[in-house]
Amino acid sequence: MNRHKWFTSGITLLIAVMILAGCGAPSTGGSKDTATSTSTGSKVLTIANATDIESFDPHNNNNTASEAVLVNVFDYLLKNDSQQKKVPGLATSWEKVNDTTWRFHLREGVTFHNGDPFTAEDVKYTIERVAKDNTLKQNSYFKNIKEVKVVDEHTADIITDGPDPLLLNRLSKMGAGILPSKYIEKNGIEAFLKNPIGTGPYKFSQWIKDDRVVLVKNDKYYEGQPKWDQVVFRSIPEASTRVSELLAGSIDIASGIPSTDIERIQGEDGKKIVKAPIQRVLQLILRQSQGSVTADSKVREAIDLAIDKKGIVDSIAGGAGIVTRTSVTPGNFGADPSLYEKTLYDPTKAKELLKQAGYTGEGPALTLSVSSIYKEYAEVVAAMLNKEGFKIKLDVLEPSAFSERYSSKSFKEMFMIGIGNSLFDASNNYNRYLLEEAKGETDYNNPKVEKLLQHALTNLDTASREKEYQQVQQILAEDRPAVYLFQMEGIYGTGNGVNFQPRSDEMFYAEDITPAK
């Protein structure tokens, strides 16, 4: 009982406020153009997310919310099925030629949305663009690609600068969306961004920033007629508003449902809740730059020990989460089970660590930045830290502002973020702690970790590579460049007009969402 005593007052009050907020939020309407079916008989799928896409450039986005939309417009050479197994996309087959070369046999008869044929030249243009332009947000995932050779119109070789154990993983994630080379070379990239063209089942129709993306079906899609006439992705940052829109019938699927609204949605006729574990781990990223308060390892450890992660899961998350001391969860290559479903909570020791760090009177002052979508979690974390002697300034940002701050690496001592794993590999989570990648964000610098991570980048021996990442996780658990809170669970509300099964990668493949009969 002592473990969660703190929650009996503060958290209960916060949950009550959240419930009232959910009940009182007004509907913004829009049912006329966002219902599952309209008076004209068109099939319209409407999905509400907390954040908007960053852009229609699949090479210059860096969040899951963007990829979840763009996968409907841009195809990859290969893709992940719902079980994360590699299946054909624009490539029908592939084989390893040698340690640095993979050959891809391309699908014939595919056209872009403007009618241009898809060929190996488009693969060359696309992959070399993201690999060579270091201003693109996806460049770090592809910069080890040396060259794409066109073997013939429907065959391409991708050559890497040294062995790459993750090439197939890279080619099935955002950053590998195939672009129309002829169209862009003729009209320029700016024209393309205003009128994006892919080979996917849905074509661009409209983007009203911070409001909605509208897609229409591609009648000439190579896998046949798409299921929906129109797919609308609405950006609704406030969870209470997403819930109200769902209950009003204005949207078909609402993501990020708060635990406090689950019972309310399930009590409505024709509405239901669907859940699935996702790759996302909610965490605090801590700056270790010289002169930062969090450069002191004792302060970082005190932050870790002062937060009751299990209490947060049980209360704010409604049990929809699993505590962890690693961000590489089961199902990802390199996971360390010894750190999963484990948590540390010792507020007494946290206070003692602050004393050892020299804070005998007033505790350290820290800024905690967070996107508004995680505001409730940040408020509870801040309250816990304040209770143990910290002085936390909470900096809540709108999702777009948070994304800009994240890209510019301009947070102060600490920021909260939910990080997924589009590669399903430990490298996706831990390459941010390579010396060059960490520069300006955490400024983390551990030579042993650097050596292990650098070697794992080209290690084709699966067994030893896995051990390298497990060793890295054990070191990071002590160094704490991040404090991991819990693995999240995706909670979605749906209407009775759709059949929807959430994916662990959080993608919204409209073709996998079917109209209810």
Automatic annotation (TrEMBL):
One of its GO terms (biological process) is peptide transport. It comes from the Bacteria. It holds the Pfam family SBP_bac_5. Keywords: Signal, Transport. GO terms for cellular component: ATP-binding cassette (ABC) transporter complex; periplasmic space. Gene3D superfamilies: Dipeptide-binding Protein, Domain 1 (3.90.76.10), Dipeptide-binding Protein, Domain 3 (3.10.105.10), Periplasmic binding protein-like II (3.40.190.10). Residues 87-437 form the Solute-binding protein family domain. Residues 1-21 form the signal peptide. One of its GO terms (molecular function) is peptide transmembrane transporter activity. SUPFAM superfamilies: Periplasmic binding protein-like II. Belongs to the bacterial solute-binding protein 5 family. This is Peptide ABC transporter substrate-binding protein. It comes from Paenibacillus terrae. The lineage of its organism: Bacteria, Bacillati, Bacillota, Bacilli, Bacillales.
